[in-house]
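FW: tagging you since you asked about this chain on Friday. Here's the raw sequence from the shared folder, copied in full. Didn't touch anything.
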Amino acid sequence: MTRPSARLVLRTLFPLSFLVALPLPGAAQSDPNASAYSLQPGDRIEIELYTDAGVELSVVGGERTVDEGGEVFLPFVGSVKVVGMRQDELRDTLEILYEEFYAEPVLDVQVRLSIRVTGGVISAGRYYLAPTATILDALTEAGGMQPELTGPGIANIPTDQSRVRLVRDGESHVLNLRPDEATDAVLNMPIRSGDWIHVPNQARSSVRDELQFWGGVISFVANLVAIIVFIGN
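HL: got it, structure written out here
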């Protein structure tokens, strides 16, 4: 049996009240260079440290964010310059550092990239994803795209899924993520640290706005005339 494409998954789920983009099996392996990813400021490191007896040392473990200077602060060893390190290099470095405090420490280190997803999604915000994550994974993490923007003081404004913005390295790119048009190449595009994905609302037409305005005026005048005629009779 062949695996369904990311585009088919996107199209199949769209008729729901909102679009929930499910990650495809194996989609996280789409970037062959993920193991060579180098840490950047803003990335997150997840650390688990065990003794040689298998006891987890929670005082050392946890999540650490790489600061603007490319460093993380770790218990007992202080600030460590990690920017530019690959995941395996980071693990080896930390094992050497903690050998001064624990006999044969065993570390599990996971790197997470910092991205933002905003606009017409279920849960906009900042997310930390694996270096192997894709655009589809990022939208999934944010709950999926919505067909309309809603909220306090916001009318139901249709979103424009054909012009999703990807801001990367200071440049803005337009992605067509309409369920019937999105390509697997776009959906499975690997994310990069610092990516900003924004699902915009549809641009309002000035002509349409004018028609709606004057239509409202005509309707109001017609109702007013009807009331005057009714009172006069």
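FW: The domain at 35-112 is CATH 3.30.1950.10 (wza like fold).
HL: agreed, and The longest helix spans residues 206-232.
FW: great, closing this out.
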